[in-house]
Each structure stands twice: as structure tokens, then as C-alpha cells.
């Protein structure tokens, strides 16, 4: 099956459906390898929840108790996956070519896919949403219920306000010392910012930090409509204009900004994937995951 | 010219101006990467926001109605019309209408004396192609009427209505007076009363004593000027003197009753002409050609009643709405 395109993405809000299609297009190559077999130890039984794999249901126990039980994670995953979503007002930036698609929706899809992969691999995963000056924190856990929780939280996210300041972020992101994998979806328009500081700090704490920088085609090419006046969704009420005469300057400023961002991230060994939201999400996802493997 | 009132229509702009809220709005779309663009002066757009649209509409209608009432507009809505004078012979009318081909035309029944004047006053209400046919006993106008459209006039003289006049004779020689009244011809018929009554229009007082003070009539003829005190200050025409008093108008002459037919005829003619309206002369049937430059009388009041009702209703609604807005 072909990779799900962004245009199709804009048509549904059903994250589970999107995950199924995106991951189906992704193939099996991205899996880090599920640990199975001798090394796996039984830890506990847990009541069956929709979404659990049938093969994990303990049939003998079913025969005895007439209830479905699942043999719970047989191993201690040494990696926790953290999903970091920037939901500040600038993430509401729509694609100017695909109706109904915006950066937040795209980020939501990517993170939902990561969560689904993590769940399939048996990893613990948690979510932190940065929006309206607050951090919405979902502690890491395993299993299909956690996936449902993460998806429900992602569905409710609205792009509003600015990023939380550094103090809020420091107390909000209560990561354990154990090494974890951090996937951050943001637009990197604010640099340096509390988020950039947090990412660098997390990297210094030996976490594997991978950021996806979401852009739109219009942003990259400077092809905005010159008709309306524009305002910055996160800053003061100043008004901006776009026109053919300003395109050069715009592209130069933007390039300069992102050069700084890239240099800074590289200096701190934070992985960054630049993605246009008009690209197929599967493609971006593969790139995002593969880059991690390369290190 | 009432149509000059239409020039007052710009006053409608006043409520529109009052109800417009002056708002300067900056319309700007959010753009995440706006920070890479230079700042610009906000483009100010004057946005017309309306407050109380219903009240605004009512006020505008109220003003428009008042102006229309003053300007007294006329809409041409009448088509071919047959104007029939009251009292015209119905069979003759039908025949004439058929002959002239006005079977479909609207019919307007009017007093004969007003027919032409009515057409002149309402000329603007007729569509440009409308034709006129006037039927009946139309009196001859003093001047040739001028219209902007052709008018066909078909007349049929009616026999003059017979009228009665009550005359009381108080005289020692009533035969002479009666002979004179018997000689009268034409539509006026003389009824001789035995004694003066309420219906008596003429009292012939040919007696030496004065009439009782309570007796009243529109006209008195007397040969005894001394019996009527009001004749002391009277004016004279020829041998006759006349005066107005409490009991009525008095004509006095010592030469009465007239001795020869010419004098009798002169007296009776004077009486008829002065006391009774002349019988109109029926105009001959004719066709009036349109006169392009004919002045048009401005019809008044065709829509005024309706406009006045609308004005009152709108005023009431306006007051109610204004009150509702305040509370």
C-alpha cells in the first residue's frame, strides 16, 4: 500500500485509522526488534483490554477463570519513549496548498504513530504537550490503554498561546534518569526558546533527543498570498505584509534563522529532521526513525 | 411644485449615518513565519457595522413616506376610460361605447359639470396610450379645454328638469298677477299658494298695509314701498328699487303689475336669472385633438390617504422600537 498522503490526512480526525494506514505503508523495517523468547520473564496477569493481541491472552487461565487475562510485559524495557508536542499558537499554521491540514494535525499524526510503534514494541511511552504556557504531562506507561490515553490527549490538543517558560518546562518534564528516547515535534520558529533549552538539557542528560521541524511548502518557498495583511499568532499585534518584493528578504531571514537552529542542534548532538507537512507522513516517519539508528 | 419635495430624499442619509458604527478594523490573517517579514503599517479598513437594522429601516421608510406624502406622487395606472355623466341614458351610453370601440375600457361615473375638470386634474394618472371617451350631457365649457391626449366627446342633451316655484300673491288685483305668471314657459313651473308658507319663494305684496313681521320669504315684490322700512336706504335700477331686510330681499316698483308683455317678460327674466341658476348649454359632440404643450394640473391626493396611514403606522412602530431599545 502506498504511503498515506497528507491530503488524506486532512480528511480524518480518527488517529487510529491514520496510524494503521501510515504504519502499514511503513513496513517492518523500522522496528528495533521485539524481544521475544527465552529472555522474557512473566511478570503479572492483567485484565484483557481491547487492542491487546490475542496471542497474549492466557487461554489456560481463560479455561479456569472464564475471564480473559493477558500475560503482562515479560521484560523490563530499558527504553522509555517520550513524545513532546509543541502546541503553541504558531503550530496552527495551515498548509496553504492542502485544505484542512495544519502543522499541529501533522505533528499529532507523527506522534501517534510513534506511540503506536512504541506500544507494539512493548516500550513505555509518555506524552508532554506544551501549550498556552502550560505543560500537560502524561506519565510513561505501557500497553494499549496507555495508547488510548495518549491518542485521546492528542486529539484534544488545541494550538494556543505561547510555549511555557523555562521554569515551568523544567518542573513539567519530570523524566527519570533512565535513558529514554525523546521525540519532539515543533516548528522551531522560536530560537532560542524554553523548548530549545529543554531539548539541549535533555540531550546533556544522555537522552536520545530527536526533533522534527515542521514546515509548510509556502513557508519554504515564500509563496504566500500577497493580498491579506498578516500577524504573528504568538507575538504583539504588529501587522506584516508579503509581496514579491519582500520574498528575497523573507527567504534570507528564514534561511539564516534555520541555519542557526541547525547549527545549534548539531552542536548539541540533537537530531533534527526537517519535514514539510505536505510530505507523506510515512516518509517523514521513516526518516525520523532511521536517523536515530544511524547514530 | 410638489415634486420638488423629492429633492429632500437625501435626508434619508441622516438615519443611515446615525446607525453606522464607525469602526476601524485591522484584518490580518495569522502567519506563523510572519517574523521573517518586515513590519508594515496596519491597513485601516473602515468597516460599516450597523446597529438596530430594523429601526434604521423603519426610520428610513418613515422619512421616505413623509417625503412621498409631501411630493404627492402620481402613478400612471389608468387605461382607456369612458367618462359617463350622471343621468345619461343607459341605452344610448351602451350604444355609443360599442360604436366607439370602448367595450373593454374602464367606466367612470361623474357629475356632468365635473367630467372635463376631473379628466384634467387626473390626466397624469393615465398611461400614455390611454384614450378617453366622454359621454352624456356635458355642459359647454367657457374655454376650449386642452389635453395632452385625444378626447372624444359624445353628448346627448337631456330635457331640462322641471322645477317648481311657489309664489304667493297678496293683492287686491290678483288676476293681473296670475295672468303674468300663467304666461311663463320653460322648465320652471309656477305654483300659486293661497297663503304664504315655508315653501314660498316669492311673495307678491300688493297691499296697502305692511306684511306681518314674522312672514319671511327669499324674495318680495311690492308696489307699496312704504310698507317695507328697509326700502328707505334702498338702491334703484330704473324704476325698481331693491333692498335686503330681515324678512328677505324686497323688490319694489310702483309700475307693477306690468301692464304690457315686454315689461312682464323683463321682470320674469330678471327674476329667473337672478334667483335661479342658468340651465347649462349642452356642448356639441366633438373630438379634441391632443395639445402637446397643454399644462398638466398636478393631481393631488391620489395616494395621500394611503401614505398618511403608512406614516402613522411607521411612526408608531418607530416609537415602539426606540422604546424597546432603551429598555
Provide a short characterization of the protein structure.
Chain A is α/β, with parallel strands linked by helices. Chain A is built from ten helices and ten strands.
Textual characterization of the structure:
The complex is a heterodimer of chains A (295) and B (327). Chain A has 295 residues and is an alpha/beta fold. Chain A has one domain: Rossmann fold (3-Layer(aba) Sandwich). Helices cover 39% and strands 19% of the residues of chain A. Chain A has 10 helices and 10 strands. The longest helix of chain A is centred in the last third of the chain and has 24 residues. By secondary structure, chain B is an alpha/beta fold. Chain B has 3 domains: 76 residues, no CATH class; 87 residues, no CATH class; 113 residues, Rossmann fold. Chain B has 7 helices and 16 strands. In chain B, the strands form 3 sheets. In chain B, strands 10-9-11-12-15-14-13 form a 7-stranded mixed sheet, covered by helices on one side. In chain B, strands 6-5-7-8-16 form a 5-stranded mixed sheet, with helices on both faces. Chain B has a two-stranded antiparallel ribbon with strand order 1-4. The mean pLDDT of chain B is 83. At the A-B interface, strand 8, strand 9 and helix 9 of A face strand 2 and strand 3 of B. Strand 8 of chain A pairs parallel with strand 2 of chain B, so a sheet runs across the interface.
Strand content of chain A: 15-25%
Number of strands of chain B: 16
Number of domains of chain A: 1
The termini of chain B sit apart by: 43 Å
CATH topology assignment of chain A: Rossmann fold
Strand order, main sheet of chain A: write it out. Answer: 5-4-3-6-7-10
By secondary-structure content and strand pairing, the structural class of chain A works out as alpha/beta
The poorly predicted ranges of chain B are none
User: Uncertain regions of chain A: pLDDT < 50 for 5+ in a row?
Assistant: 29-39
Can you summarize the main beta sheet of chain B?
7 strands, mixed
Q: Helical content of chain B, roughly?
A: 25-40%
Shape of chain A: globular
Major sheet attributes of chain A? 6 strands, mixed
Order of helices and strands of chain A: HHEHEEHEEHHEHEHEEHEH
Structural classification of chain B: alpha/beta
Looking at the overall shape, the CATH architecture of the largest domain in chain B is 3-Layer(aba) Sandwich
How many domain regions of chain B? Answer: 3
Net shape of chain B: elongated
CATH class of the largest domain in chain B: Alpha Beta
The rounded Rg of chain A comes to 21 Å
Amino acid at each position: 500500500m502506498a504511503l498515506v498522503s497528507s491530503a488524506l490526512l486532512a480528511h480524518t480526525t480518527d488517529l487510529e485509522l491514520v496510524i494503521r494506514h501510515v504504519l502499514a505503508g511503513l513496513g517492518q523495517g523500522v522496528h528495533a526488534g521485539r524481544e521475544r523468547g527465552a529472555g522474557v520473564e512473566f511478570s503479572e496477569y492483567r485484565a484483557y483490554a481491547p487492542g491487546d493481541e490475542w496471542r497474549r491472552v492466557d487461554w489456560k487461565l481463560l479455561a479456569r477463570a472464564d475471564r480473559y487475562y493477558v500475560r503482562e510485559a515479560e521484560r523490563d524495557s530499558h527504553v522509555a519513549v517520550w513524545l513532546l508536542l509543541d502546541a503553541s499558537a504558531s503550530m496552527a499554521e495551515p498548509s496553504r496548498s492542502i485544505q484542512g491540514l495544519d502543522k499541529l494535525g501533522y505533528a499529532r499524526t507523527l506522534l501517534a504513530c510513534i506511540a503506536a510503534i512504541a506500544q507494539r514494541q512493548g516500550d513505555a511511552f509518555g506524552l508532554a504537550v506544551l501549550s498556552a504556557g502550560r505543560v500537560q504531562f502524561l506519565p510513561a506507561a505501557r500497553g494499549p490503554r496507555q495508547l488510548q490515553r495518549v491518542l485521546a490527549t492528542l486529539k484534544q490538543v488545541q494550538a494556543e498561546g505561547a510555549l511555557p517558560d523555562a521554569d515551568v518546562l523544567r518542573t513539567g518534564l519530570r523524566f527519570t534518569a533512565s535513558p529514554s528516547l525523546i521525540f519532539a515535534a515543533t516548528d522551531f520558529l522560536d530560537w532560542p526558546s524554553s523548548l530549545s533549552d529543554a531539548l539541549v538539557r535533555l540531550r546533556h542528560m544522555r537522552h536520545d533527543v530527536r526533533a522534527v521541524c515542521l514546515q509548510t511548502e509556502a513557508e519554504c518557498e515564500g509563496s504566500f498570498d500577497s493580498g491579506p495583511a498578516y500577524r504573528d499568532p504568538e507575538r504583539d499585534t504588529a501587522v506584516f505584509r508579503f509581496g514579491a518584493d519582500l520574498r528575497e528578504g523573507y527567504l534570507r531571514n528564514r534561511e539564516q534563522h534555520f541555519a542557526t537552529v541547525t547549527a545549534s542542534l548539531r552542536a548539541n548532538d540533537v537530531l533534527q529532521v526537517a519535514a514539510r507537512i505536505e510530505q507523506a507522513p510515512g516518509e517523514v516517519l521513516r526518516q525520523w526513525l532511521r536517523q536515530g539508528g544511524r547514530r | 411644485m410638489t415634486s420638488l419635495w423629492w429633492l429632500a430624499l437625501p435626508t434619508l442619509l441622516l438615519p443611515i449615518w446615525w446607525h453606522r458604527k464607525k469602526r476601524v478594523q485591522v484584518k490580518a490573517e495569522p502567519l506563523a513565519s510572519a517574523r521573517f517579514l518586515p513590519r508594515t503599517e496596519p491597513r485601516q479598513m473602515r468597516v460599516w457595522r450597523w446597529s438596530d437594522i430594523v429601526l434604521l429601516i423603519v426610520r428610513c421608510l418613515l422619512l421616505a413616506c413623509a417625503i412621498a406624502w409631501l411630493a404627492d406622487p402620481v402613478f400612471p395606472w389608468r387605461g382607456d376610460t369612458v367618462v359617463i355623466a350622471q343621468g345619461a341614458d343607459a341605452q344610448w351610453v351602451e350604444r355609443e361605447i360599442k360604436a366607439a370601440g370602448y367595450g373593454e375600457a374602464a367606466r367612470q361615473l361623474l357629475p356632468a359639470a365635473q367630467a372635463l375638470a376631473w379628466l384634467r386634474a387626473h390626466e397624469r394618472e393615465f398611461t400614455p396610450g390611454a384614450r378617453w371617451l366622454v359621454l352624456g350631457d356635458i355642459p359647454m365649457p367657457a374655454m376650449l379645454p386642452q389635453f395632452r391626449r385625444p378626447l372624444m366627446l359624445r353628448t346627448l342633451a337631456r330635457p331640462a328638469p322641471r322645477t317648481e316655484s311657489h309664489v304667493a300673491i297678496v293683492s287686491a288685483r290678483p288676476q293681473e298677477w296670475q295672468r303674468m305668471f300663467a304666461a311663463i314657459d320653460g322648465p320652471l313651473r309656477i305654483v300659486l299658494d293661497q297663503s304664504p308658507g315655508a315653501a314660498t319663494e316669492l311673495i307678491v305684496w300688493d297691499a296697502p298695509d305692511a306684511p306681518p313681521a314674522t312672514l319671511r320669504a327669499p324674495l318680495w315684490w311690492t308696489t307699496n314701498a312704504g310698507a317695507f322700512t328697509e326700502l328707505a336706504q334702498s338702491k334703484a335700477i330704473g324704476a325698481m328699487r331693491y333692498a335686503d331686510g330681515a324678512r328677505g330681499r324686497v323688490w319694489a316698483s310702483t309700475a307693477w303689475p306690468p301692464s304690457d308683455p315686454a315689461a312682464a317678460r323683463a321682470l320674469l327674466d330678471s327674476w329667473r336669472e337672478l334667483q335661479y341658476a342658468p340651465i347649462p348649454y349642452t356642448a356639441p359632440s366633438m373630438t379634441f385633438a391632443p395639445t402637446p404643450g397643454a399644462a398638466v394640473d398636478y393631481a393631488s391626493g391620489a395616494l395621500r390617504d394611503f401614505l398618511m396611514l403608512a406614516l402613522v403606522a411607521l411612526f408608531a412602530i418607530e416609537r415602539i422600537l426606540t422604546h424597546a431599545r432603551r429598555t
